[in-house]
Design brief:
- The chain is built from four helices and 20 strands.
- The protein is globular and about 60 Å long.
- By secondary structure, it is an alpha+beta fold.
- Strand 18 and strand 19 form a beta hairpin.
- It starts with a helix and ends in a 9-residue tail after the last strand.
- The strands form five sheets. The chain has a seven-stranded antiparallel sheet with strand order 5-6-7-11-10-9-8, with helices on both faces. A six-stranded mixed sheet has the order 1-16-15-20-13-12, covered by helices on one side. It has a three-stranded antiparallel sheet with strand order 2-3-4, with no helix packed on it.
Length: 324
């Protein structure tokens, strides 16, 4: 109703002002151009992901090009199986920090004997609503909370893939005759999960072996992956009072109660150098960015030397209770 009323006021104002303008100029005002929404397009105005710069890699910035999936943020590359492709891009990150990085499947012209899928996701462990603190606990939680129609096929264990450790387990559906292989490791305080699905268990074993062509950062592990070296050290709840020299709270005039998860990178001098909004309205991003630009942290020291820090800050209200 408010939108319709606003549109009516705008039209009324134009109708009143147009004749006067025409008399002043001696010409009739040209009709305003009409913008049409393309067929099959849905416009959604709401909370969305964004960042304070276009240079720093983001978790959702992964792409498939030349038959290789790569995500610079996670330092991850994965050659696709022959004849496979990415048909659809994933949705934006959720307000609990869940990402769909890639959805891979055989192309329409695939001639192989069996079909399946590869789903690559990431969960920001700063904002997870689940009682899991790392990839090992994440896999354990998934196994313990399978629905009644599913059966554990291979219990949780640790495996080596691409010379990196992964937490792994497998389950299947006797009704659908589908099998799932689930692998997870920790990178930059995200649980990166690879889920292989098919009705053919032999295909899943082939896909598992194909993952050995993947490249991951050396710090990736089911219970580690806290950054460092060539990426910032990620620290849970680093924006505590004892680590802050100056803090300014954002002034939110609307949409104040939705969760606004934000990842920030603090430079060696303690200044906020990068802001990644996982989910926020445009007005919120400006208010939060203006405030964070005035924050000052105490430099974080590792081996006596200042290093960059990446941490998560939740503004607004959490959508559901979480357990770190």
């Amino acid at each position: 109703m408010r939108i319709r009323f606003s549109c009516f006021i705008a039209i009324l104002a134009l109708s009143l002002s147009s004749p006067a303008s025409a008399q002043d100029t001696g010409q009739r005002s040209a009709p305003a151009p009409v913008t049409k929404v393309p067929a099959g397009v849905i416009l959604v105005k709401g909370a969305w992901s964004s960042a304070s710069d276009l240079v720093t890699p983001l978790p959702e910035g992964g792409t498939v090009a030349h038959d290789v999936f790569s995500d610079p943020y996670f330092g991850m590359t994965l050659p696709l199986p022959q004849g496979w492709t990415e048909k659809y891009k994933g949705p934006p990150p959720s307000d609990s920090g869940r990402y769909v990085l890639a959805q891979l499947s055989p192309s329409d012209t695939f001639q192989g004997p069996a079909r399946g899928s590869i789903l690559i996701t990431a969960q920001d462990m700063f904002f997870t609503p689940l009682p899991a603190g790392n990839a090992t606990q994440w896999i354990g939680y998934a196994k313990d909370h399978l629905q009644a129609d599913y059966r554990v096929e291979k219990p949780p264990t640790q495996v080596k893939i691409a010379d990196r450790s992964f937490a792994f387990f497998a389950y299947w559906s006797p009704v659908a005759q589908l099998h799932w292989y689930v692998l997870a490791t920790e990178i930059r305080c995200h649980t990166v999960e690879i889920v292989l699905t098919s009705q053919d268990a032999e295909l899943l074993d082939v896909l598992m072996r194909g993952l050995n062509r993947m490249k991951l950062p050396a710090a990736a592990s089911p219970t580690g992956g806290t950054g460092g070296t060539d990426v910032p050290v990620c620290i849970q709840d680093y924006a505590r009072a004892e680590n802050l020299v100056a803090r300014v709270d954002p002034v939110l005039t609307e949409h104040r109660f939705n969760p606004m998860p934000v990842r920030v990178i603090v430079d060696r001098q303690g200044n906020v150098k990068h802001i990644h909004f996982l989910s926020a309205f445009p007005g919120q991003t400006k208010a939060i960015a203006d405030a964070l630009g005035q924050w000052k942290f105490r430099p974080y020291l590792r081996d006596g030397q200042p290093v960059e820090v990446e941490t998560g800050i939740l503004f607004g209200r959490a959508s559901r209770p979480g357990t770190p």
